[in-house]
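Sat 14:20. Reprocessing the chain from the morning session after the first attempt stalled halfway. Input below, unchanged.
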Amino acid sequence: MSDAEETSPGSAEKVGAGRTAPPQSKERKQQARRRVLRTILLTGGVLGAALSGYLPIAYAQKTRLRPPGALDEQDFLSSCIKCGQCVQVCPVQAIKLADLADGYGQGVPYIEAREQACDFSCDAVQCILACPTGSLTYRKPAFMPVRPGAKLASKPILLAKESDAEPTLNLAERIGVARLTRPESCLAIQGKGFKGPARGAEFKGELRYMSVDRWKPIPISEHPYDTALCDLCVQACPVKGAISIEAVFAPDGSSRKSPVVHEPCVGCGVCEMVCPTEPASIEIMPGEGWRA
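Finished this time. Tokens:
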């Protein structure tokens, strides 16, 4: 009997022009499957290793908003020991620790102002007091330069402490500055008011409202606004004289109302957090200085 007659058509595989090979055994099929899986896993491992080396470089370009009193970025990254003490003392949980996506800044504290800004509910800036290395400091050592526009003209006055014997925040430099980055969406510029919770009923961010409680921050969703011309950024700002609504002139010569940021701005991010437009019309520029 020929080879062709010994092998059934359904179980044979064609090899070359007229020859057939016996079917693979179950064990051989499993081995082949394992080889494919190993190849996939090894490829993924190589790509993952390459990506892990790339992420620190890619994300190092992204500037994070650091807690109050933070040294300039490179000094901050080199001196912070990632202990998390600042995170633990923040009364509104504004400070978070960065993850792998932040590259060289992994484990370093930062603030995502749009989600939860620093409203200085602690009054004394507890994160600075808690920092064991001086990465967060009231005043830099003399040998460290001050970046352009970072130095505050005077200690900022905290509105919540305005009637206290010492109403100021012990800060010498700002951590950023607020800028109206999307004027076309600003409700004040459009001449519109606002009514209701600033960020909707589901928003979890908190803010200290003096009219509600001198010490305890409450969810922004529990404090609805009702204003004929939107000025939520001004109402919520914790620093005296940092922002106001003023008349400005448009390119066509017409006058309209607009938020105007002033020198006392420390970059806390409250204005960005409460802005009711999506995305926010006003944002904090981390690490940037005041420009007149």
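The radius of gyration is 29 Å.
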